[in-house]
C-alpha cells in the first residue's frame, strides 16, 4: 500500500471523475482530496463521494470556480463548504478548518491554512489523509500504516476526540467493522467505555443513521458484541436487545436489510424503539409488521397461505418467516426456502366483491354495506380465497336474507 498512487485507480476505474477532478485542480491547484476518498482509493475500494479541501477561503473558492464557468452551490458556508457541480456530479470543497469550540455535538470553526491542523480535527487516522494533484499522500498521523494492518485509531487523544463529538463512538464501530481487524484498538475501547454515556446527548436521528449503517455493514454480530462489551449498545437500545437472535438470522442468510435486522435484534417493544429513534413512517410500519402475526410456516398449504397473502404484504410475510426460522434453529433451511419461494409464486388474492355489488341489491346502504362486505370477506378468507365473484354474490344474498349484520 505504501507505493500506491491513489489517482492511478481513479484514472482506471472512474476516468470521467478523474477528468472532472483534473479540471477542478486546474482552477484550485492547491486543493487536495481528503477523507474517505483517499482511504478507499488506497485500499482499492469503490469511491462514491469525492471531497476536497483547500487553504483558500470559501468566497475565493466560489469566485474562482464561477469565473471558470463552473456551477457552484454554497452548501455550507458557515462550515466553509461549497459544492462544484460538473456534468451533474457534486464535488464538495471545504476550506481548511480548526475547531474553536465544541460541545460534544457541534463545533464552531475558523479557517486555517495549516493542513496538519485541519487533519488533526478529524476522527480517525485513516480518515485524516489527503492527496494532492500529483498523487502524493499527506499522512500526518500514520493513517496509511493503520489502514494496512486494520487498526482504527483516533487522531490524537481518543477521549478528546469523543468529547468533541460523541457520534464518533458509533462511527468507530462502523469503521472497525469495515476496515478494522478482529480486535479493536485497546486505547480507543477504553475511551469509549469511559464516555459511552455521552451517546444519550446525541440526537436520535444521528444515532439511528449510524446504527442503520452498522446493521447492514460487515461483521454485524461481532461489532454488536464489541458495542455491548464497551457499554455502548445499552445506550443505543435501552429497550433491550438479543444479539444471539440476530446472529441466527444472519446465519440463515436473510436479506441484508437494516429494519429486518433491527426487528431481530430488539428484544423489547419495537414500537417504542421506533418512536424513540424517530424512525420514518415506512420504517416504523415495516418494523411493526415484521414482528407481527400471522407467520407462514413450512408445510402450510395454499388454503392457509392465500388468506395471509390477501391481508398482508408479501415482504412482511417473508420477513416474518426469516425471524421464525432464526427462532427455530435446527429446522432444515430448504423447507423455509421452499415456503418463501411458494409465497413469491402465489398471486395475491383479491376479494371479488365491491360496495357497488351490495348497493345494486337495493337492500343495503350506508354503514350496512361495509358490514355486509366484511361478513362475506370473512367467509371468503375462511375458504381459502377460492370463491369467485358469482359465489361471493350468492353468499352476499344469503347474508342479506338473514338480516342486517350487527355492528362489530
UniProtKB/TrEMBL annotation:
Residue intervals passing through the bilayer: none
Gene3D superfamilies in the record: Beta Polymerase, domain 2, cca-adding enzyme, domain 2
Alphabetized UniProt keyword annotations: Magnesium, Metal-binding, Nucleotide-binding, Nucleotidyltransferase, RNA-binding, Transferase, tRNA processing
Species for this entry: Komagataeibacter europaeus
Cofactor(s) the protein needs: Mg(2+)
CDD domains tied to this protein: NT_ClassII-CCAase
Family: Belongs to the tRNA nucleotidyltransferase/poly(A) polymerase family.
Annotated Poly A polymerase head domain residues: 31-153
Protein name: CCA-adding enzyme
tRNA nucleotidyltransferase/poly(A) polymerase RNA and SrmB- binding domain segment(s): 185-239
A single GO BP: tRNA processing
UniProt cross-references to PANTHER family, sorted A to Z: CCA TRNA NUCLEOTIDYLTRANSFERASE 1, MITOCHONDRIAL
Gene Ontology molecular function, alphabetical: CCA tRNA nucleotidyltransferase activity; metal ion binding; nucleotide binding; tRNA binding
InterPro entries per the UniProt record, alphabetical: Bact_CCA-adding_enz_type3_sf, NT_sf, PolA_pol_head_dom, PolyA_RNA-bd
Signal peptide residue numbers: none
Highest taxon in the source lineage: Bacteria
EC nos: 2.7.7.72
SUPFAM superfamilies: Nucleotidyltransferase, Poly A polymerase C-terminal region-like
Amino acid at each position: 500500500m505504501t507505493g500506491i498512487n491513489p489517482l492511478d485507480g481513479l484514472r482506471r476505474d472512474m476516468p470521467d471523475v478523474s477528468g472532472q477532478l483534473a479540471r477542478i485542480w486546474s482552477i484550485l491547484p492547491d486543493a487536495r482530496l481528503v477523507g474517505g476518498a483517499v482511504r478507499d482509493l488506497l485500499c482499492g475500494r469503490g469511491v462514491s463521494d469525492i471531497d476536497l479541501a483547500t487553504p483558500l477561503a470559501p468566497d475565493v473558492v466560489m469566485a474562482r470556480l464561477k469565473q471558470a464557468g463552473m456551477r457552484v452551490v454554497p452548501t455550507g458556508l458557515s462550515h466553509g463548504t461549497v459544492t462544484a457541480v460538473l456534468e451533474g456530479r457534486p464535488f464538495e470543497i471545504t476550506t481548511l478548518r480548526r475547531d474553536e469550540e465544541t460541545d460534544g455535538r457541534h463545533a464552531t470553526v475558523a479557517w486555517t491554512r495549516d493542513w496538519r491542523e485541519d487533519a488533526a480535527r478529524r476522527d480517525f487516522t485513516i480518515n485524516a489523509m489527503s492527496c494532492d494533484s500529483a498523487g502524493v499522500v499527506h499522512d500526518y498521523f500514520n493513517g496509511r500504516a493503520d489502514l494496512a494492518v486494520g487498526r482504527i485509531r483516533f487522531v490524537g487523544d481518543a477521549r478528546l476526540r469523543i468529547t468533541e463529538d460523541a457520534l464518533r463512538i458509533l462511527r468507530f464501530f462502523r469503521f472497525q467493522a469495515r476496515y478494522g481487524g478482529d480486535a479493536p484498538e485497546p486505547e480507543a475501547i477504553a475511551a469509549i467505555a469511559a464516555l459511552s454515556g455521552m451517546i444519550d446527548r446525541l440526537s436520535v436521528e444521528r444515532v439511528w443513521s449510524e446504527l442503520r449503517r452498522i446493521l447492514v455493514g460487515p461483521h454485524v454480530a461481532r461489532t454488536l458484541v464489541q458495542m455491548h462489551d464497551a457499554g455502548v449498545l445499552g445506550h443505543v437500545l435501552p429497550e433491550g436487545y438479543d444479539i444471539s437472535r440476530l446472529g441466527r438470522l444472519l446465519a440463515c442468510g436473510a436479506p441484508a436489510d437494516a429494519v429486518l435486522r433491527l426487528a431481530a435484534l430488539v428484544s423489547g417493544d419495537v414500537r417504542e424503539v421506533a418512536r424513540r429513534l424517530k424512525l420514518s413512517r415506512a420504517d416504523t410500519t415495516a418494523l411493526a409488521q415484521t414482528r407481527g402475526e400471522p407467520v407462514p410456516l413450512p408445510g402450510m398449504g395454499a388454503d392457509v397461505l392465500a388468506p395471509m397473502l390477501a391481508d398482508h404484504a408479501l415482504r412482511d410475510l417473508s420477513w416474518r418467516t426469516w425471524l421464525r426460522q432464526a427462532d427455530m434453529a435446527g429446522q432444515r433451511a430448504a423447507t423455509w426456502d421452499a415456503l418463501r419461494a411458494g409465497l413469491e409464486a402465489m398471486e395475491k388474492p383479491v376479494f371479488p366483491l365491491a360496495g357497488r355489488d351490495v348497493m345494486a341489491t337495493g337492500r343495503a346502504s350506508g354503514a350496512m354495506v361495509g358490514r355486509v362486505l366484511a361478513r362475506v370477506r370473512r367467509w371468503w378468507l375462511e375458504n381459502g380465497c377460492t370463491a369467485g365473484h358469482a359465489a361471493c354474490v350468492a353468499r352476499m344474498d344469503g347474508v342479506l336474507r338473514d338480516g342486517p349484520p350487527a355492528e362489530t
